[in-house]
Amino acid sequence: RYLHPSWLLTRIKNAYPELWESIIEGNNQKPPMWLRVNQIHHSREQYLALLEKEGISAFSDDHLPNAIRLETPCNVHLLPGFNEGWVTVQDRSAQRCAELLAPQNNEQILDLCAAPGGKTTHILEIAPKAHVLAIDIDEQRLARVKENLNRLKLHATVKSGDGRYPEQWCANMQFDRILLDAPCSATGVIRRHPDIKWLRRNEDIAQLAQIQKEILHAIWPYLKSGGTLVYATCSILPEENSQQIAAFLSSMQDAQCDYQHQCLPEQYSGDGFFYALINKK
User: Fold this and answer.
1) Judging by DSSP bridges, how do beta strands 87-89 and 157-160 pair with one another?
2) What are the pLDDT digits (tens) for 147-170?
C-alpha cells in the first residue's frame, strides 16, 4: 500500500507520528528540478529572464537567494549557459548547506564527503577566493567533483581520503569552516532515488550513525577556535541527525550549536535534509 519496506515505515512512524503519511506520500512523488544560479555570472532575476526567453517556465524561492524551480524538468543542455557554468542542477535543500556555512574569501574551508561536488562549487560561487579542500573516500566520484569545478571554472584542491582519519590527508591544517555532508541513509531523497527503499537495511542505520560519530569527533580538532562546522545529511531519521548532534554536544565542551533544522521531503518542494550549525568556542 505504501511502497515502503516495513522496517522503514516503522521508523518513520515512530519519528513522525503526526506527519508520517505526508512523508511517505512525498517519497512516492516525482521530484521537481531545482537550479542554482551562479551569481558570478548573473543575478537570479537575470537568469529567470533568460529562461523565459527560451520558453522555460520557472519560479524563484523566497528563502534562498539563487534557487529556481522549473515548472517542468528539462534536459540540462536546454538551459541557457549550462556548459558555460551559468547554472547548476541542485535541490533547494542541498543549496541551504553552503548558505548556512557562509564562506568568506581567503578562508581555509574543508568540504568533507564532497562528491559529486555540488556543495564544493556552491562554496566557491559565494566566496571565489576561498581556499577549499574537497575530500571524499570514493575516488571514482571525485572525478565528478573535478568535472563540476572545470565546467564552472572554479578551483579547489581535491583529494581522496577517509573522514575518520584526517591525519592521513590534511597534516596539521586548521580550517575556518568545515562542511560535513555526512554519509547517511539518504532517507530524505527517496523520491530521487527510489531504490534506496530496497537497498537500505534496518541495521544500516546504527552502522551509519557510528561512522558519522567517528567523522565528527575526528575532524573537530581541525576546526579553528571560533570556527564554524555545518553538519548536514539527506536523512530524516533522528538517530543520524538531532540525536547525533545532541550526543556530540554533550561530549564536546567547546562545541555550541547555534542552529539546527530538519527539513522533510516536499517541504518548500525540497528534499529531506538536516542541518546543524556548530561553533567552536
Assistant:
1) unpaired
2) 999 999 999 999 999 999 999 999
In terms of phi and psi (left: phi > 0; alpha: psi -120 to 50; beta: otherwise), the region of 75 is beta
Cell numbers of 40, please?
558570478
β 175-181/223-233 pair status? parallel
Q: Which residues are registered as beta bridge partners of 231?
A: 180, 276
What angle, 0 to 180 degrees and rounded to 10, lies between the N-to-C axes of helices 204-219 and 242-251?
Answer: 40
113, exposed or middle or buried, with CB in 10 Å at 0-12, 13-18, 19+? Answer: buried
So which residues are the catalytic ones? 234
Other C-beta atoms closer than 10 Å to the C-beta of 91 total 25
C-alpha–C-alpha distance, residues 128 and 273, integer Å = 26
Dihedral of alpha carbons 117, 64, 183, 74, sign: negative
> What pTM was estimated for this model as a whole?
0.97
26-57 per-position pLDDT tens digit: 999 999 999 999 999 999 999 999 999 999 99
Based on its alpha-carbon atoms, the radius of gyration of the chain, rounded to whole angstroms, reads: 19
Q: How far is residue 161's CA from residue 175's CA, in Å, rounded to a whole number?
A: 16
Sheet holding 108-112, edge to edge: 157-160, 131-136, 108-112, 175-181, 223-233, 273-280, 255-263
The interaxial angle of helices 92-101 and 118-126, nearest 10 deg, is 50
Per-residue pLDDT tens digits for 212-256: 999 999 999 999 999 999 999 999 999 999 999 999 999 999 999
- Can you name the residues that pair with 262 across neighbouring β-strands? 274
Q: Return the closest-CA partner of residue 26 out of 261, 187, 259, 221.
A: 187
Three-state DSSP class for 231?
strand
